[in-house]
Amino acid sequence: MPDRIIRHMDRATARARARLGRRGTLLALLGAIWIATGITTLLAPPSPGYLLLSIATEARGVAWIVTGVIAIWCATRPSGHDALGWIALYIMAAYRVLAYGWGLVEWAITVDAGGSLRAAFGALVWVAVLVILVVCAGWPEPEDTHTGPIPEVRP
Question: What is the 3-state secondary structure (H, E, C) of the chain?
């Protein structure tokens, strides 16, 4: 049964790749993650330890959802016309870098403040996400997306 599920998932991802391309598939996946993050932010707000992660929770939750929807909408657009989706993804990732960076500054200034040394890890992770977004946004969609077996050429 697991083999059957894997074959079904492989066919589904092949259809998505054929329809969306690699850039579009990435945009759709990340958009879905952004929407899930927004829903989580609305349903389970973060602890008040970090100032910028604990204020305006509803607005940030909605911003995650809206930017995720924009990314998914842009996933269906051709390569080169999907820039708005990549920009939408940058917004909330950059906010996370700012929020964790501020938490680290708070911790460095006064240890009793809301931030902690763990903010350094959070900031580094979200900087890595931003770098990944920049790299992926710059990749052109390949002209030939043939991913099946290599055709046999006979002389």
Answer: CHHHHHHHHHHHHHHHHHHHHHHHHHHHHHHHHHHHHHHHHHHCCCCCCCHHHHCCHHHHHHHHHHHHHHHHHHHCCCCCCCHHHHHHHHHHHHHHHHHHHHHHHHHHHCCCCCCCCHHHHHHHHHHHHHHHHHHHHHCCCCCCCCCCCCCCCCC
